[in-house]
Amino acid sequence: MLWTEKYSPQTMKDVLGNKKAIEEIENWLENWDHGEPQKCLLLVGPPGTGKTTLAHLVAQQFSDHIELNASDKRSYDIIMNTIGEASASVSLFGQGGLKLIILDEVDGLHGNEDRGGIRAINKIIKEGHHPMIMMANDLYSKRIQGLKSKCQLIKIRKVHTNSIVALLKKICVKEGVDFEEHVLRTLAKRSRGDLRSAINDLQVIAQGKDSITSDDLKAIAEKDDINNIFDSVRTVLKSKNPRRIKDSLRLEADPGFILEQITENIPREYEKAEEIEKAYNAVAEADVYLGRAFHTRHYGYWKYTYDLMGVGVALAKDETYKKFSRYASSTFYSKLSKNRAKRDLRDRVATKMGAKMHTSRKVAIEYFPYFEIMFQGDELAQDLADYFDLEDAEVKQFRSRKIKKQKPKKATKAKTTSKTKTTNPKTTKSTKNPSSKRPSETAVTENDPVVNTDSSFKKASKTNDSETPITPKDPKTSTKTKKGKISKSAESKDKSDSKSDSEKSESKEKGKQTSLFSFQ
Ligand SMILES: Nc1ncnc2c1ncn2[C@@H]1O[C@H](COP(=O)(O)OP(=O)(O)OP(=O)(O)O)[C@@H](O)[C@H]1O
């Protein structure tokens, strides 16, 4: 149950603040009681200050009452019927049988929407035969300017922080919740005179707990910049007053973020499937305009976004729900931050692979599903990881299991490194780890995962191996690569490799490219 209802004042004396206003209302009631028809009461004040509460307390003094919302079109039919009914049945409205009409949110009234309804209200106001209380938030709203002169205007003011703290204390004691006074004071101050908001906040942090501390406040404080958003979301989902909803959506926050918060909380508030469907349709349309604004940079489209996600969602419900709903922050954003690590890994891996494959990161990502399959076998996975220079953590992009360490391949080593091992350790190294060079520069081995291992390729790989050492005959190359120093081992290797040179030229003659990655 909502604590605002559970702890709602039971008598006029329980109502906090606004003593003068309460006195005026009591006089009005007394006059009706004495059979003197009174002007319609118009209670105007900020949200959560007790207007509806006062109207309900007044209603207890009448034999019956009906409560309607001015922004609800059906309300006017009901008023018309009630008045018609009243003229037919005097007993309902006769002395001792007065039926009070409570009309909420009259600043949300639409002049042209239902002329019959407006006529009915005017009739009640003019004749003054029927007790009626109207409520509005905005004293300066154009919509109530005409009503102000015809009604008895009563201003309801914000409730003082001390009074709010006192009420919060009382609630904590009744709920058996231990509290630190400053926590309640902070809640009261945050509410800015809105008792409903203060009680709701207390319920959020205290319900089901033995005590509340500053830590609980921290949770609220952390959300401070989105607190206003939650208030707005609450207004959208709880109210049907277009003007109030539009006002509440005047926020600093990004409209996309507000839309996410509203979307997340629709099913937490609305209960009927049709209402949820209608609300999501409004959200979908709002999203279309959001996208349009983004793509065209014509931010005028935002006004449609705001109207659809605000008024559109609000009017999707048949009636407002009088229940406590615990709203939550959109999971979209928390998921987004949770996935950040995943996205970073994906991008890192794609960058490395793209560089090797001479593709953009985006294209590399498109190949990921194929690599996922290729990474299943340990041997190929190891080769791919070496080739693309992927660390263990990066291999996780493609497989959850670690790659089992491979036993060194004796046969391959014998074939490819026996000659070079003693003469040029650099070449040997590059044979073991091809990933340290671009495919064109690398001594390709049978282990190279991307290269097919047909016999022509094996030949090419041998040729490549022997060609890696720098020949002294080519001073340009040797100077460039070895910075002027040609090592003894390189020299001896060069001699022994004079045979390789002839093999190389032979290979060149045979064909320019012997496999996918063996460029000459
Ligand atoms: N002056 C008050 N004294 C005690 N409790 C109050 C007072 N004002 C508000 N409350 C608490 O807040 C709840 C909501 O108040 P209420 O609906 O009367 O506000 P309101 O002014 O009609 O707001 P709105 O303009 O948004 O309709 C009440 O049920 C009650 O628990």
Automatic annotation (TrEMBL):
<dbReference type="GO" id="GO:0016887">
    <property type="term" value="F:ATP hydrolysis activity"/>
</dbReference>
<feature type="region of interest" description="Disordered">
    <location>
        <begin position="398"/>
        <end position="520"/>
    </location>
</feature>
<dbReference type="GO" id="GO:0006260">
    <property type="term" value="P:DNA replication"/>
</dbReference>
<keyword id="KW-0547">Nucleotide-binding</keyword>
<protein>
    <recommendedName>
        <fullName>Replication factor C large subunit</fullName>
    </recommendedName>
</protein>
<dbReference type="InterPro" id="IPR027417">
    <property type="entry name" value="P-loop_NTPase"/>
</dbReference>
<feature type="compositionally biased region" description="Polar residues">
    <location>
        <begin position="442"/>
        <end position="455"/>
    </location>
</feature>
<feature type="binding site">
    <location>
        <begin position="45"/>
        <end position="52"/>
    </location>
    <ligand>
        <name>ATP</name>
    </ligand>
</feature>
<dbReference type="InterPro" id="IPR003959">
    <property type="entry name" value="ATPase_AAA_core"/>
</dbReference>
<dbReference type="GO" id="GO:0005524">
    <property type="term" value="F:ATP binding"/>
</dbReference>
<feature type="compositionally biased region" description="Basic residues">
    <location>
        <begin position="398"/>
        <end position="418"/>
    </location>
</feature>
<comment type="similarity">
    <text>Belongs to the activator 1 small subunits family. RfcL subfamily.</text>
</comment>
<feature type="compositionally biased region" description="Basic and acidic residues">
    <location>
        <begin position="488"/>
        <end position="512"/>
    </location>
</feature>
<dbReference type="Pfam" id="PF00004">
    <property type="entry name" value="AAA"/>
</dbReference>
<feature type="domain" description="AAA+ ATPase">
    <location>
        <begin position="37"/>
        <end position="263"/>
    </location>
</feature>
<dbReference type="GO" id="GO:0003689">
    <property type="term" value="F:DNA clamp loader activity"/>
</dbReference>
<dbReference type="InterPro" id="IPR003593">
    <property type="entry name" value="AAA+_ATPase"/>
</dbReference>
<comment type="function">
    <text>Part of the RFC clamp loader complex which loads the PCNA sliding clamp onto DNA.</text>
</comment>
<keyword id="KW-0235">DNA replication</keyword>
<comment type="subunit">
    <text>Heteromultimer composed of small subunits (RfcS) and large subunits (RfcL).</text>
</comment>
<dbReference type="Pfam" id="PF21960">
    <property type="entry name" value="RCF1-5-like_lid"/>
</dbReference>
<dbReference type="InterPro" id="IPR047854">
    <property type="entry name" value="RFC_lid"/>
</dbReference>
<keyword id="KW-0067">ATP-binding</keyword>
<feature type="compositionally biased region" description="Low complexity">
    <location>
        <begin position="419"/>
        <end position="437"/>
    </location>
</feature>
<dbReference type="InterPro" id="IPR023935">
    <property type="entry name" value="Rep_factor-C_lsu"/>
</dbReference>
